[in-house]
Amino acid sequence: MAFIPTVDAEKCVGCEECVDVCPVEVFEMEDGKSIVANGEECLGCESCVEVCEDDAITVEET
Known about the structure:
The chain has one domain: Alpha-Beta Plaits, CATH 3.30.70.20. Helices cover 16% and strands 29% of the residues. The chain is built from two helices and four strands. Strands 1-4 form a two-stranded antiparallel ribbon. Strands 2-3 form a two-stranded antiparallel sheet. The protein starts with a strand and ends with a strand.
């Protein structure tokens, strides 16, 4: 089973909380916004979803 994390750039405010909370470094900051840099590493724990106050992150199962 794989997971696909996605960041909605329009909702992202660049707080970096997802970058800090992710145990496998899926996210990086680029131009003041979070981006999915290592999506294949996603464990599906959804810590990023829980910490994102702007609902900018989703994680889908494949």
